[in-house]
Amino acid sequence: MQIMCVHIPDLYLWFLVYRDDQRLDYEGRLQRELEALRARTALEMDQARSQLTEVMERDRHSLTEARDIAMTERNTAQCRERDTNTQYQNLLKE
Q1: Torsions phi, psi of 3, nearest 5?
Q2: What is the pTM of this model?
């Protein structure tokens, strides 16, 4: 029967190598996860910017239409006012 003799310095060296390997593996996984999160965040930010741009364009278009409609109504009201004033002046002359 042969007894294996493990030297303490060899065991300690093996432990250090194993620990470094595990640390490097963990850091690699962590780095990949961080890169995935950054990529997903960048994609979500781009989507949010795109959606915001679309919303702002729709709002701008709606506001422009509302302004045009209001100006048309104002012009119509001014014409009616002039016509009414003309009719009133004509009635005063009679």
Answers
A1: -100, 130
A2: 0.59
